[in-house]
């Protein structure tokens, strides 16, 4: 081939070749020139990556279990002698074969009323002796986690409450029987133990939740909707939440997805330690909306240790009724700040009463530790064993003082309920209760705060609500239940059947007429 022909061929190649063809020629060494590619490169972003939770999940999952609870359920019919039909003088067996009831039992393979009979179906069996007088039935399920290699498991009280038999299901599907060691309704915690453990279990430990900050990552592992082994992640949304479940509310709020069945399950930090135990969710729909509440590890660690030791939690008891100190109250009492717990009244014969704590005192500290509010005081006192002597600092009549109190034992909820049932309310309070309202002195000392309204009462029908304030009755100022009843008694003597209540709310003041013939 001549040089002329070679140049002609090269021009043809340059004219007709694509970029890819040119690149191929360049790689082959035909063209001694550099030609840039016309194609763009894939997008790559150099940025900090969110940490994976896989290592945490792999480490902690063997320690998390599903908890299945069975309870004794009473059957509607207790035994064969109590379970019988009679149709116009005829028994079940006397009914014709095409009778609707016989067809029903036969079609659905159900035993007839005699436990066998023509409707028993091929898989039916006669009722065993004593069967039906109450048997174990599945009633609830939740989550839990091992805290020791010998099989101790933490879960919620509301998961195991009223349970008679307990089964834990491990993440590998293995089922183990467990027994209830103890439970504490006030903190919603319970402790189970695997019966006759034949292995050492993977377990987790509690974190120092005081080091956890709002915004820190948490990983929730549990058994939502019975699915088992489900992992969700989120952050700590808030701390110290009070959701009205009791005097010891101090919950961690998280936004990780928590649903029914997650109760009793752990929330882990990135070190695989338990920072909280799921106990409740806020949900208008019943499903997760990103607001869940967990028992802090510091609370759980202390309660679980006591349950493990004695099967119950004994708490110190002061025996005084308390309320928050508002800024108005603080100003009126000469306190520099609105903190502490105002004593409404000491219970007669209680440790606080015996030590000399009086109505109107403000508890400012316990053993030198400042008291923030009534919840803080309740938690501090409850943390001491019964019989402990504590130094209670008080603000009384514009001066600081202190008393020493030998704490009693906080009565159980059952004992408190019984005691309340045995105690007759004062006549004035009982009379107001008959009108459908319960009241307490207002914090500012002017009027009466409505603390409860019977939904079936005239007061409820007239729109009176808890949180509002009664300032006068029949145009006479009132500041106690006795003041109200004094006015009502006079109205009765005057032949009136109704009393005019002046009620204040955030929307203003209004008058409500209530019948007084029941008072």
TrEMBL record:
Residues 319-373, 422-480 form the PDZ domain. SUPFAM superfamilies: PDZ domain-like (SSF50156), Trypsin-like serine proteases (SSF50494). GO terms for molecular function: serine-type endopeptidase activity. InterPro entries: PDZ, PDZ_sf, Pept_S1C_Do, Peptidase_S1_PA, Peptidase_S1C. Gene3D superfamilies: 2.30.42.10, 2.40.10.120. GO terms for cellular component: periplasmic space. Its EC number is 3.4.21.107. PROSITE patterns: PDZ. It is found in: Periplasm. Pfam families: PDZ_2, Trypsin_2. It catalyses: Acts on substrates that are at least partially unfolded. The cleavage site P1 residue is normally between a pair of hydrophobic residues, such as Val-|-Val. Its main location: periplasm. Belongs to the peptidase S1C family. This is Probable periplasmic serine endoprotease DegP-like. Keywords: Hydrolase, Periplasm, Protease, Repeat, Serine protease, Signal, Stress response. It comes from the Bacteria. Residues 108-141 are annotated as: Disordered. The active site is at 158 (charge relay system), 188 (charge relay system), 263 (charge relay system). Substrate binds at residues 158, 188, 261-263. One of its GO terms (biological process) is proteolysis. It is an enzyme of class 3 (hydrolase). Residues 125-134 have a biased composition (Basic and acidic residues).
